[in-house]
Amino acid sequence: MQLSFLEPLFDHAGPWATVYFDPAQNDESGAKRRELSVREACRVLEEEGADTATTRAVRDALMNISPAEDPAGRVIFACGGEVVLSCRLSRPPQGPIACWNPLPRLTPLLELCGQDPVCLVAYIDRTGADFELRGAAGPQSAGQVQGRQWPVHRTASSDWSERHFQLKVEDTWDHNAGEIAEALSSAYEESGADLVVLVGDPRERPAVRERLPEAVRGVTVETEHGGRAAGSSSTVLEEAIEQARQQYTRRRVEEALDRFRAGRVGTDRPTDAVEGVPALTEAAREHRIDTLLIRPDGADLARETWVGGEPDQVAVRRSDVRTLGEGDPTPVRADDALLRAAAVTAADVLIVPPSDGDGDGADVPAGGLGALLRWTYEPTAV
Predict the structure, then answer these.
(1) Do 237 and 289 belong together in one domain?
(2) Is 166 exposed, middle or buried (0-12, 13-18, 19+ CB in 10 A)?
(3) Is the domain of 299 the same as that of 368?
(4) Residue 230 has what pLDDT?
(5) Would 343 be classed as within a structural domain?
(6) Which of 36, 50, 87, 202 is the most buried (most CB within 10 A)?
């Protein structure tokens, strides 16, 4: 999961009000529960020291959340009397979360938004394709491509002239498949999508896939459901797209864990994986984190870490942050500090599922925090 959408948070010094809010049911009793939940969240913020202007801004934002538009709820980040960012949740929080901290509270967002990859859906027929981007902001148009419009329909005659015409039709199909593949590749690069789903004509789909560059073809899947024509969307198509996204995420997590296990510190060779807060804060200071791994049940997430005003001013000791140029370091949770550093250095973040209880992977990563690095280094001799 890329955290670039969180950049507005790091243009403000804080402290921060963070509220994860479930709007409840869209009926009279739900409205009453929603009002009580808003009051409770604001009460918690006030008790933890939030200023009046920021608490009022949070209250107004929470009261405007609609169960119809945001059935799973939203998270509100506010400071300095204004709501800086509000994000839709994919799943409602299991319980109320409201806090006033030096940094935004981010780990619950990763869990409640899921690790939804950005998906580029191509709705294909034999004359062109429409592209749609599926991400945290919901479906968005990503352009279209129109190929040759004639001839595109074959005849059933076996006459020589008709067979010649049919060859022209197939030539049109092949030509259009090439144009769709080229436009799709460009849309994939420009959109920053993680995977591609091909929807539509059963002949044109594989023809387009064959013409995609290898890197794009490797993250492309097809579904037989739906099509380009208006009204062809369906629940089955939506389920197929969601399944493709989930499979992509599971594969990425498995690949990252395999690489992590192979590259952890503990050998006498250079490593490209680290775990534990001391090693991670060092990697964050040097901008070496490529992928931050977070296991939400890990004990190290809440470990006290010291930070300064800059994301790379982070260490396990207050004195170490002072040597980095921060005169008044602040204690924060380790996961909040590392997520801030990951966001501003364009690192990826993956949520690692809790251990399944059979002992396999129970310590991966140890303490719940680990990272794959952008370059290797020699482990420090002990």
Answers:
(1) no
(2) middle
(3) yes
(4) 75
(5) yes
(6) 50
